[in-house]
Amino acid sequence: MLKLELQRFSGAEVLPLFEGGKGISISNGETCGAWAATGGVGTFSGVNADFYDENNNVIPQVFHGKSRQDRRRELIEYAVAGGIAQAKIARERSNGKGRIHMNVLWEMGACEEIINRILESVSGCIHGVVCGAGMPYNLAEITSKFNVYYYPIVSSARAFSALFRRSFQRFKDFLGGVVYEDPWLAGGHNGLSNAEDSMKPANPYLRLVELRNVLNSFNLQKIPIIVAGGVWWLSEWEDYIDNKMLGLTAFQFGTRSILTTESPVARNWYEKLMSLRKGDVLLTKLSPTGFYSSSANNRMIKRLLELQDRQINIAENSSISIDIHGRKVFLDESKAKLMNAWIRKGFSTPMLTPDNTVVFTTPEQSEKILQDQRSCCCCLSACRFSSWCQHKGSTGRIPDPRSFCIQKNLQAIAHGGAVEENLMFVGHCAYRFSEDPFYDNGFIPTTQQLIDRIITGY
Ligand SMILES: Cc1cc2nc3c(=O)[nH]c(=O)nc-3n(C[C@H](O)[C@H](O)[C@H](O)COP(=O)(O)O)c2cc1C
Ligand code: SF4
Question: Would you say the CB of residue 404 lies under 6 angstroms from ligand 2?
């Protein structure tokens, strides 16, 4: 049994065990409430969360607006309704125990409006807001207004230092903790900087010491660091507990907490999670956010990687050219043979990319890409797939067919869509489901059983 001391988070003494927030609708009010009920910190996703009709059925998020702006307004209303619905469920399920946090992405469309409106309605149900995917400079000011704690997710000491200097230092009272998410191990979007090599993982301990040193330099010795990314058995992290170099630490479980009886996706995802082996989770730069992300290398990801391979540079002048929407485009002639082979196999539709290249798709694939781009509902602040940008209307670059609509994919997979055909975020520790005897014979634990197990160190 590990010696896990209770710690103060978001105004209460709780277990230093966090549920990792998972959008869209994967960590929700049910999972969050169940986690909080064990005495830990539950986290529901406030990213386009589900809301319900009077019979408790999920209301599908269908967009009726003809223009992007109209669909954007619909999306915001859905997101606010979803956040409020999940917060209420979480509070009810928690029986007043533990803490309830809401997770949002800073780069989601209309993030500030959505957090403000959810907190205006149900700040009494939410003790903390956890925010990643971007640099949430205004997060502190927003949550502090509602007496709600905030938890930035960072992947380096440098990122925290920039946030603190520019904004957080004015709102120190409500800084609840800092989530350190290992960018080479964690599921979902990953905060790798341009200077870091996706193939060369750095030692998390050294990065955590660096983060602690930065926190201490700002006189934040009492602020805990929540360690996320690759955490499975706590017995493997004993050195990170009660360690003077790291100060107060807690642990966040993103991938492991997917499989519980309270999880909305457990049954659907179970077989896929159990089939994953080491190396089956890929860190790619395919997300329309422009961030790296970690997901199962399923058919959807394979298709996108193959599309990248069917790519030819545009040339100034050459002996091969193709017609794209009436425009004659010259291509690198050294790739002529390859191009003809792709066309013979049915990848006969060329599409321009913003990087001065052309990719070859099937006519059906191309139509689906265009359809997804046309029906954009502005779920991000800026999207490389559709060129949507909430500040200027467009990023100014042409839409990138090598990416995908993350909104459609995540909504689909959270609501029973095929786990091979949609984006399935998971962390690099997911192979451990098949190796950990805890899950033998198809066992799916309740959240309480999972926490009891985690507390033993395993
Ligand atoms: C399916 C899935 C969805 C996720 N979605 C989000 C999200 O919406 N926002 C976020 O901040 N982190 C998200 N994450 C990251 C987790 O909250 C957590 O920090 C991370 O998974 C920890 O690493 P682990 O997977 O190795 O436990 C997601 C992770 C997974 C596996
Ligand atoms: S196209 Fe991009 S911004 Fe639009 S809904 Fe899809 S992912 Fe979101």
Answer: no
- The answer to whether residue 290 is domain-embedded is no
- Shortest-distance atom of ligand 1 to CA 132: 11
* Ligand 2 atom, smallest distance to 408 CA: 6
pLDDT digits (tens, 9 = 90+) for 135-175: 999 999 999 999 999 999 999 999 999 999 999 999 999 99
Establish whether residue 108 lines the binding site of ligand 2, counting it when its CB lies within 6 angstroms of any ligand atom: no
Per-residue pLDDT band for 133 (boundaries 50, 70, 90) equals confident
From 43, 41, 35, select the one nearest 16 (Cα to Cα): 41
| 79 inside domain | yes
Instruction: State pLDDT tens for residues 291-328.
Output: 999 999 999 999 999 999 999 999 998 999 999 989 99
- Domain match, 147 and 200 both: yes
Within this chain, do residues 308 and 180 fall inside the same structural domain, yes or no?
Answer: no
Summarised one tens digit per residue, pLDDT across range 251-276 is 999 999 999 999 999 888 999 999 99
CATH of the domain at 451: 3.20.20.70
**Total structural domains within the chain:** 2
Q: Are residues 345 and 258 in the same domain?
A: no
Mean pLDDT to the nearest integer, 224-234: 98
| Cβ 380 under 6 angstroms from ligand 2 | yes
Residue 69 alpha carbon to ligand 2 centre in Å: 13
DSSP letter at 239 equals G
Q: Which of 61, 111, 374, 383 to mutate to test the pocket of ligand 2 (most atoms within 8 A of CB)?
A: 383
Domain, as residue range, for 160: 7-267+437-455
Average pLDDT across the chain, whole number: 96
What is the SS3 string spanning 374-442? Answer: HCCCCCECECCCCCEECCCEECCCCCCCCCCCHHHHHHHHHCCCCCCCCCCECCCCCCHHHHCHHHHHH
Backbone phi, psi, residue 264, to 5°? -70, -15
- Any idea which ligand is nearest the CA of 48? 1
Cβ(253) – ligand 1 distance below 6 Å: yes
